[in-house]
Write a structure and sequence with these properties.
Elements: H1 3-21, E1 25-30, E2 41-43, E3 49-52, E4 62-67, E5 70-78, E6 84-95, E7 104-110, E8 117-122, E9 131-136, E10 148-155, E11 161-173, E12 178-185, E13 189-192, E14 197-200, E15 209-212, E16 216-221, E17 239-247, E18 256-260, E19 272-276
Parallel strand pairs: 12-17
Antiparallel strand pairs: 1-11, 2-5, 3-4, 4-11, 5-10, 6-9, 6-11, 7-8, 7-10, 12-14, 13-15, 16-17, 18-19
Length: about 280
């Protein structure tokens, strides 16, 4: 194999690896083959339904459909995009009968399920076959726990019918940085809890306790923390700490009190409370 051919093959392989690493992940997909709208929230007049017809579906046997007359009749789907970027929204739609200017199927997305952005307003359209639409959403759609999409139909007459099928939300999962938490006991103690621990960036560890041997006390950790048990929160880097212990020192020698008294028929000297030094006779 010549050098040029080898270089060409290597470039293809590298490109393939890069493409594979950045391949989109399907976050949500619905071809309505379950025969219901259980993956969606239906609101408004609720005329949305699923239709079983292999010849009428884009793929499979079923599709979602809404007939008129209806106003602000919607199906919505909440799908978290946390830890995901490069969000795209894909679907197929079909106008079963021509739409007039007063007829609309509005396709929208929201970062939080409250504030909605319109992607497409299907109106004044003739009868169509299945139309494939893919929308690459802005960065604001990424990393949103409340991300949502919806289809909102307002149709004037019973002859106005719109179908949708093969809805898909995709994105690229972020690479997740992980950190290691290591807890070690110094001499005269031990660790109760998991060590080492592996946690994702900005997440929390689990509690660990420094347990002293008999005759010793826990002092602190090598990073000066005195928390015991200890739970590291919002971890952004590796942590490695040692628990320090110290011997329990008995109290210094002191004076003692002797309380003396005589029974009946006798006496004692000295009588009463007598203070003597430690170890004295």
């Amino acid at each position: 194999m010549t050098y040029r051919k080898l270089l060409f093959v290597m470039m293809i392989l590298l490109c393939g690896v890069a493409m594979k690493a950045e391949a989109a992940t399907i976050l949500f997909s619905d071809g309505f083959e379950t025969g219901d709208l259980s993956n969606w929230v239906v609101s408004g007049p609720t005329k949305w339904t699923t239709v079983n017809s292999a010849s009428g579906a884009n793929t499979g046997n079923r599709r979602a459909q809404v007939p008129g007359p209806t106003v602000a009749d919607s199906i919505s789907r909440a799908q978290s995009t946390a830890n995901t970027s490069g969000i795209s929204f894909e679907y197929f739609y079909k106008v079963n009968n021509a739409l007039e200017a007063a007829d609309h199927l509005v396709v929208q997305w929201s970062p939080d399920g409250i504030s909605w952005n319109t992607l497409q307003d299907i109106t004044s359209a003739g009868t169509t076959t299945w139309v494939h639409m893919t929308h690459s959403l802005p960065a604001e759609a990424s990393h949103q726990s409340g991300f949502s999409v919806r289809f909102v139909a307002s149709l004037e007459s019973a002859s106005d019918v719109i179908s949708i099928d093969d809805v898909k939300i995709e994105g690229t999962l972020d690479s997740i940085t992980q950190h290691t938490l290591t807890y070690t006991a110094g001499a005269d103690g031990s660790i109760n809890g998991v060590s080492p621990q592996t946690v994702n960036h900005s997440e929390n560890g689990t509690p660990v306790t420094a347990v002293s041997n008999k005759g010793f006390n826990f002092v602190d950790w090598s990073d000066a923390s005195t928390a015991n048990p200890r739970t590291d929160m919002n971890v952004t880097n590796d942590i490695s700490v040692v628990a320090n212990f110290s011997v329990i020192v008995p109290p210094p020698p002191g004076d003692h009190t002797i309380l003396a008294s005589a029974g009946s028929g006798g006496s004692i000297t000295p009588n009463g409370a007598v203070t003597v030094a430690n170890s004295a006779d």
